[in-house]
Design goal:
Layout: E1 3-14, H1 53-65, E2 77-78, E3 80-84, E4 94-98, E5 104-105, E6 108-113, E7 116-129, E8 133-135, E9 144-146, E10 153-159, H2 166-182, E11 195-205, E12 215-220, H3 223-242, E13 250-255, E14 260-266, E15 276-277, E16 284-285, H4 288-296, H5 302-311, H6 316-322, H7 326-335, H8 343-361, H9 373-384, H10 390-402, H11 408-415, H12 423-436, H13 438-445, H14 449-462, H15 469-480
Parallel strand pairs: 12-13
Antiparallel strand pairs: 1-10, 1-11, 2-16, 3-4, 3-15, 5-7, 6-7, 7-10, 8-9, 11-12, 13-14
């Protein structure tokens, strides 16, 4: 029997606010355990929660972003509810969340898998507070509880079960990750838990429209683990069904060391949490005027930026990488102003290669780049007109500009990097290499393509890297009858 996998994701994006969802306690990562939890976060008697205005604004930004800048999917009146359950890292015995009336309903995320575009529908996005954290390492026969994270604002983003493969789920998660960073509502740091996914996975006979029993895989904090966990879980469920068994609805964890999922607890349904409106919080009202104010502050859409990069000739895979954050994309678009199509892949390659490496070395972002977009554009011109090779541009000229050694042309002249493009001179070098490498010539003529690359390398070595590699390739192929 052929089976179809059905996947929906629940993603928790930690909102990048300085204080918590319902208190003034700090949200900074890495503080000493239990130093950033106040009385409100653990519901001491007599305290009252107050909703964080910035967290609400960031939720509205998300609603606008996933609905084409329209506010039709933003509930102007939403309700906070208490989600009741017992767990050691939840000292007040309930989590403040939204249930029947979330702040955002609907929307969609566009993905591309194997060249095919697809839209993944969103069910909802709701505000809630995070729980604390249970610590197991370093405690013999004990579990430590760190409540610093308790009360941290989250936006839980729930998709419809529209994905049919682990690859689609990863594409969706990556697109969502890029979006929340793009609109500046979440830093997206998966290692610190700022962006984590729960995957709901079920299988059904191919062609069926009836959903199977789902299992939820909790707290997947890398795209690789998300993919591996879904693939394992789907095969696990298929094996059980083909053996005549029945899938039990449950919550599971992914064990990266064993590359498998394992049972954590029986999966709860909504009624198990006994949701009811929080008596300490009034319904959340969002005015039309405030939504309009937030809309005006929204950046140009990620899709528009990516489309702009593609239009000027940036390869699709590089356009996706360049739009990972706004600073990188803005720098790239500034560098591409007034260029010809041949410059686009050169500029994008330099940005994603040497320039990004330099920024990472000094812990800077593109807003702080020591090489300007004008300088990068000029360097790409010199590669296109054959003055300097892309190798020299990337490994010598750009680092020299970063170090403040001068402009493009002065560095090329001072370092003696100008390419040899005179065909007569290059032909003499090629003939010399052919004469000195009879075995490699014979290997190439015998069908060993790698031997040709070696010959090109010999010419580049002979010319100290100054030969135009495209011309060298053409001359050698002509000389060798390739």
């Amino acid at each position: 029997m052929k089976w179809e996998t059905v996947i929906g994701l629940e993603t928790h994006a930690q909102l990048s606010t300085r204080s918590k969802m319902f208190s003034g306690a700090a949200t900074a990562f890495g503080a000493a355990p239990n130093t950033q939890a106040c009385g409100v976060d653990i519901a001491l008697p007599g305290v009252l929660p107050v909703a964080n205005r910035q967290a609400v604004a960031k939720a509205v930004r998300f609603g606008l972003a996933v609905n084409g800048n329209s506010a039709t999917n933003i509930n102007r009146r939403s309700v906070f509810a208490r989600k009741n359950y017992f767990y050691p890292d939840l000292p007040k015995g309930y989590q403040i969340s939204q249930y029947e009336t979330p702040i955002v309903k609907g929307g969609a995320i566009a993905i591309v898998v194997d060249g095919q575009e697809k839209s993944v529908r969103l069910t909802r996005a709701h505000l809630e507070e995070d729980a604390g954290k249970s610590l197991h390492e370093g405690f013999r026969d004990l579990t430590g509880i760190d409540l610093n994270r308790a009360g941290t604002p989250l936006l839980e983003i729930v998709s419809e079960p529209d994905m049919r493969s682990a690859q689609e789920a990863v594409a969706y998660a990556k697109a969502l990750h890029a979006l929340v960073r793009w609109i500046d509502i979440c830093d997206g740091n998966m290692q610190e838990g700022s962006f984590r996914c729960d995957a709901n996975v079920s299988v059904r006979p191919a062609g069926s429209d009836k959903l199977g029993t789902r299992c939820e895989i909790k707290n997947l904090n890398s795209f690789r683990f998300l993919e591996r966990a879904i693939e394992f879980e789907a095969q696990r469920q298929i094996g059980i069904l083909e053996d005549g068994g029945k899938i039990e609805q449950e919550t599971r964890l992914y064990d990266a060391d064993k590359d498998e999922t394992r049972s954590m607890r029986t999966k709860e349904d909504a009624h198990d949490y006994r949701y009811f409106p929080d008596p300490d919080l009034l319904p959340l009202e969002v005015s039309v005027e405030w939504i309009e104010e937030i809309r005006k502050s929204m950046p140009k859409s990620l899709v528009d930026q990516r489309t702009g990069l593609l239009k000027v000739g940036v390869p699709p895979h590089q356009a996706e990488q360049l739009t990972g954050d706004r600073a990188t994309s803005t720098f790239a678009l500034e560098s591409l102003v007034g260029t010809v199509p041949a410059q686009a892949p050169i500029i994008s390659g330099l940005i994603l290669g040497t320039l990004r490496a330099k920024l990472n070395e000094e812990h800077l972002d593109f807003n702080q780049s020591k090489v300007t977009s004008d300088q990068l554009r000029k360097l790409s011109e010199r590669v296109v007109d054959g003055t300097v090779s892309i190798t020299a541009a990337s490994s010598v000229v750009l680092p020299a500009m970063w170090a403040g050694e001068g402009d493009v042309d002065s560095i090329i002249a001072k370092r003696g990097l100008k390419q040899i493009s005179d065909s007569g001179e290059l032909e003499r070098f090629c003939d010399e290499v052919i004469a000195a490498n009879a075995q490699q010539v014979a290997d190439y003529k015998g069908g060993k393509d790698k031997a040709f690359n070696s010959l090109v390398g010999q010419v580049m070595k002979l010319t100290k890297g100054k030969a135009n590699p495209q011309q060298v390739t053409a001359i050698l192929k002509r000389r060798l009858g390739g």
